[in-house]
Amino acid sequence: MQICESPADLQALKAQNVGFVPTMGALHAGHLSLIERAKAENAFVVVSIFVNPTQFGANEDFSQYPRPIEKDLELCAKVGVDALFTPKADTLYPFKEAVSLTPPKDLLGFEADIRPGHFGGVLQVVLKLFNLVRPTKAYFGQKDAQQLLIIQRAVADLFLPVEVVACPTLRDSDGLALSSRNAYLSPKERQLALKIPKALTTIKEAYEAGITQRASLLTLGQEVLSPLEVQYLALVNRQLLPLERIEPNNSLILTAVKVGTTRLLDNLWL
Q1: How far apart are alpha carbons 196 and 208 in whole angstroms?
Q2: What strands, in cross-sheet order, belong to the sheet with 137-141?
Q3: Rounded CA gap, 1 and 46, in Å?
Q4: Closest by alpha carbon to 75, among 26, 140, 129, 139?
Q5: I need a labelling partner for 93 at 20 to 30 A (CA). Which of 150, 220, 225, 260 fits?
Q6: Phi first, then psi: what are they for 256, rounded to 5°?
Q7: Residue by residue, what is the 3-state secondary structure of 110-167?
Q8: Reduced 3-state DSSP string for the chain
Q9: What is the mean pLDDT of residues 101-107?
Q10: Residue 161, CA distances (Å) to 70, 127, 154, 195 in order
């Protein structure tokens, strides 16, 4: 496995048919599933590890975000990553003031309301990484649904020569969606967090039983999530527009829930 710290290192690879998995490190089985799919579909796989400062707000967990780089290196080598890109902040942001990007307003709300500027920072770093890695395909998990939709829109709108591949959310054996932030949960909080996948399962089962109206489905979910702090629980289509009832193959249940001090995202694609 080649370790690349600079753009020059990446350019020296001269690889064709590149699969790319951008990450912030603290790799878990969810990331590894993206890497495995990239390996199956491409001749050469690049993974990046970079905790991007521009997508964190002033009171968020940038300084505390887990950075087990040695473990991440071992995992990437073990699963056969061809090249690992580990840039420093001043490599990706060489100027005092970077060019800013604004996500489309029709895809905002939800995370954008709670984390102002977050998606601008996400687009900023993802487009920088795309320009450096020049991937054929890039792999993103469906767990961060709003992020995925915004990146897909940016790629289409800017005519970028990369295919964004959406990959299903991977879950732990207890049903909790895999996330680097799960490490923040105490054992008691972990048990409370299981209300999140249970709420989504309850909604899915109700839909399969014939209930399609938004109010009824979200009420069922809210009942399961009580007494956790639900920041949002919404039914939208895949353009993030609110729905009154499920539209098959075009619907999302989005939720963000605080468990203790930890924010957890999850969703259900219907």
Answers
A1: 19
A2: 2-4, 83-85, 44-49, 18-23, 137-141, 163-167
A3: 10
A4: 26
A5: 150
A6: -135, 130
A7: CHHHHCCCHHHHHHHHHHHHHHHHCCCEEEEECCCHHHHHHHHHHHHHCCCCCEEEEE
A8: CEEECCHHHHHCCCCCCEEEEEECCCCCHHHHHHHHHHHHHCCEEEEEECCCHHHCCCCCCCCCCCCCHHHHHHHHHHCCCCEEECCCHHHHCCCCCCCCCCCCHHHCCCHHHHCCCHHHHHHHHHHHHHHHHCCCEEEEECCCHHHHHHHHHHHHHCCCCCEEEEECCCECCCCCECCHHHHHCCHHHHHHHCHHHHHHHHHHHHHHCCCCEHHHHHHHHHHHHCCCEEEEEEEEECCCCECCECCCCCEEEEEEEEECCEEEEEEEEC
A9: 91
A10: 33, 11, 11, 40
Select which of 19, 31, 141, 149 is catalytic: 31
pLDDT of residue 230: 98
Half-sphere exposure of 78 (CA within 13 A, CB side): 9
Q: What is the pTM of this model?
A: 0.94
Would you state the structure tokens that stand for residue 163, as one six-digit string?
């295919």
Q: What is the pLDDT of residue 59?
A: 81
Average pLDDT of 110-122?
A: 94
Residue 58 pLDDT: 83
Backbone angles phi, psi at 169, to 5 degrees: -65, 135
Any catalytic annotation for residue 28? no
Longest dimension (CA), the chain: 56
**Strand pairing partners for 48?**
22, 85
Residue type, 60: E
Write down how long the chain is: 270
